[in-house]
Amino acid sequence: MVIVLDTTNCSARLTDMIKNAEKEIILISPYLQISTLLFGFLRDAHSRNVSITLIYREDKTNQKSKLEELNAEILILDNLHAKCYLNESMAIITSMNLYQYSQENNAELGVLIKKTNEEDVGVDAYDAYNALRKEVLTLYRIAKQNQTLSQSSGPSSPELKKKAEPKKPTGSNNAIKTKKPPEGGIFNLIKDVILGPSECYCIRCHDKIEDTIEKPLCNNCYSSWARYKNENFSEKYCFNCGRPANTTYSKPLCDECFENQSY
């Protein structure tokens, strides 16, 4: 199900998303000014053991301490401009910040994407949710890495620097396999405008190709591969990072990207 939202419905659907979450809530907004009522819904979600993650750029009202009471994972991303809110079954892409003034005074616009069975809503909405979640996890990893690097650039004591040494990102336990939405249409437009297009690499010739892991070869190389369709034939590059690697059609990622994958 896909619904276009005005200002009132952006706020209402955000409330529904928090109230109906069963596993996770991810809130992405450059600015914070969370209303008392919304905090109450977040507190209730926490009491139901729902995981809460917040990625933001600036906390205008110093609400970080209140969020820490909810055991929320809080990450800062300096150049953040996207506004996106989701739980395990629905997502909202919107112009509205997580800011009380915006919710009450600004003219906002958004799109609700609700994930249900493919048979019920068609491939477009299903893939749009999954593609969006993949991009959200990318922002999550960037913010996480920036925070780790910031901590490691602190005290110069060898002992303290050793403790603050950045760890390899581990990805999300809730990552789900995604497919690229169909060419064109509102979903690609929204994703590309807000979060930017994504590209990967042909595992045989290294040309840039669309981020569709089910087909990790460019059209020319795929035609050559299709004559034999040997999924274990040794290739030359990683589909995700493009570095030289011993990959195959059935395992198109290098070891590092495979460990950190969000596919």
Topology summary:
Elements: E1 2-5, H1 7-19, E2 24-33, H2 36-47, E3 51-59, H3 64-68, E4 73-76, E5 84-87, E6 90-94, E7 98-99, H4 100-105, E8 110-114, H5 118-121, H6 123-152, H7 158-163, H8 185-195, E9 199-201, E10 208-210, H9 219-225, E11 235-237, E12 244-247, H10 255-259
Parallel strand pairs: 2-3, 2-7, 3-4
Antiparallel strand pairs: 1-8, 2-5, 5-6, 6-8, 9-10, 11-12
Helix pairs in contact: 6-8
Strand content: 15-25%
The unreliable regions are 156-185
Percent helix: 25-40%
CATH evolutionary superfamily of the largest domain: Endonuclease Chain A
Helix count, DSSP H or I runs of 4 or more residues: 10
What is the strand tally?
A: 12
CATH fold-level assignment of the largest domain: Endonuclease, Chain A
How many domains? 2
Architecture of the largest domain, CATH level 2?
2-Layer Sandwich
Distance between the termini: 23 Å
**Helix-strand makeup class:** alpha/beta
Q: What is the chain-wise order of helices and strands?
A: EHEHEHEEEEHEHHHHEEHEEH
How would you sum up the global shape? elongated
